[in-house]
Design brief:
Structural class: alpha+beta
Strand order of the largest sheet: 1-10-9-6-7
Helix content: 25-40%
Radius of gyration: 17 Å
CATH class: Alpha Beta
Order of helices and strands: EHEEHHEEEEEEHHHE
CATH topology: Phosphatase 2c, domain 1
Distance between the termini: 27 Å
Oligomer: single chain
Shape: globular
Length: 242
C-alpha cells in the first residue's frame, strides 16, 4: 500500500505570448498515485516545435509507464528507466515526428521509500529535505551557459543530458518541479526559499481552495514582461511543512 502521508498538487497556465498568437499551452503536468507509490511530472514543449504540446503531454504519460516498470523491478538501472521513458515517448507522439514534438521532462517517483528524480532540459526541481543537508536544487545555470540549446526528448536517446538524484523518503519533505516559465524568473539564491514558501502555504489547504489559489497566482504572475507558459507541481508529505 502507498504511504498515505504523501500527496500532490499542481497547476499550469498559458503564457501571454501564446494567448496573443492563438497557440495552445505547450506545458503539461500530471500526477498519479499507485498502490506502490506516487509519480509527479512536468514537461515544457519547445516553443519552436509545431507539435510541442503533443510532446509535453506524451512525456508525462511516458514517465508513468516507465515508473510502473521500475516499481516492478527496482534492481533495474536508472539509465534503463530513462531509456524506457524515451521509448514510450516515441510511441505516444506517433504519428508525429520526434523533431516536431521536442519537450523537456522533469519527474519525481516515490517508490518503496525512495524518491527518484530526473531532469532533462530547462526547469527546476527543488527538494525540501528534513535537514538543510538533505535539500538540493536540480536546475541549469543559464548565466554560465554560452548556448541557447535546450536538452529535450527527441529522436535520439542521450542519457548524459539527464540529471538524476535519489533521496530516502524519510529524509524528504517535499519536491517542487517547475518549467522555466517560473524558474527563469527566480534568482538562484531565491529558488529554495520560493519552493519552501509554496509548500508551507499550500500543504494544509483544502484541494479545491489550493487549486483555485494556484491558478490565480500563476495567472497574475508578478514579473513585468513575462510571456511564457507556467507550470508547477509538488509531491509533499502531509504535516511536515515548515
Amino acid at each position: 500500500m502507498p504511504d498515505a502521508r504523501w500527496d500532490h498538487w499542481g497547476g499550469s497556465v498559458i503564457g501571454p505570448l501564446h494567448v496573443r498568437t492563438g497557440l495552445p499551452n505547450q506545458d503539461a503536468w500530471m500526477a498519479r498515485r499507485y498502490r506502490w507509490g506516487s509519480v509527479v511530472v512536468v514537461s515544457d514543449g519547445l516553443g519552436s516545435k509545431p507539435n510541442s504540446d503533443v510532446g509535453s503531454k506524451a512525456a508525462c504519460l511516458a514517465v508513468f509507464e516507465a515508473a510502473r516498470s521500475f516499481a516492478g523491478n527496482q534492481r533495474a538501472d536508472l539509465e534503463d528507466v530513462l531509456r524506457l521513458i524515451h521509448a514510450h515517448w516515441l510511441v505516444k507522439i506517433a504519428p508525429f515526428f520526434p523533431s516536431d514534438c521536442s519537450a523537456t521532462c522533469l519527474f519525481a517517483m516515490l517508490i518503496d521509500g525512495t524518491v527518484t528524480l530526473g531532469r532533462l532540459g530547462d526547469g527546476m526541481i527543488a527538494v525540501q529535505g528534513a535537514s538543510e543537508g538533505d535539500s538540493c536544487i536540480l536546475s541549469d545555470d543559464k548565466e554560465q551557459s554560452f548556448s541557447n540549446y535546450t536538452s529535450s526528448l527527441h529522436h535520439e536517446f542521450r542519457p548524459r543530458q539527464w540529471e538524476t538524484a535519489t533521496i530516502d523518503s524519510a529524509r524528504c519533505e517535499a519536491v517542487v518541479l517547475c518549467t522555466d516559465g517560473i524558474s527563469d524568473d527566480l534568482l538562484p539564491e531565491m529558488r529554495m526559499p520560493f519552493a519552501q514558501e509554496l509548500c508551507r502555504n499550500y500543504a494544509a489547504m483544502d484541494p479545491d481552495e489550493r487549486r483555485q489559489d494556484l491558478r490565480r497566482w500563476l495567472g497574475g504572475w508578478p514579473v513585468p514582461g513575462h510571456s511564457d507558459d507556467k507550470t508547477i507541481a509538488c509531491l509533499f508529505k502531509r504535516g511536515v511543512a515548515r
